[in-house]
User: Fold this.
Amino acid sequence: MNIHELTMKGYCCSQIMIMLGLEYLDQKNEQMVDAAAGLCLGMRTEKTCGILTGTVLMLTLIDKENALLYMIPEFVEWFEDEYAQKYGGINCCDILEGQPITKAIKCPDIMEKSLEKAKELLSFYGHEWE
Assistant:
């Protein structure tokens, strides 16, 4: 699976990040993917970016103990450093700048970079992801 293909199939950012984590674990869980839809578009209120919340769920799914203690705080700090100043915040509405059409342009790139950061964190804790 890749981010572009999943986006074209209609999955949102948070769902895609969960699906990538499930794929890493060689698992399927449609209920979890469906539930992650609640995080789409900033929890449907254009609040906290679904890429951020979806990646946090992915990290927890793969390595709960280290995610809760170390990876999530580091990932959130990285995400804020990377995007808050660039877009004026980490809310979906900040990133999309009130222009939902920009989702197709900005979000895949942010997902790719977030996935790379997640892989880096997971690798540090012994999870090799190809």
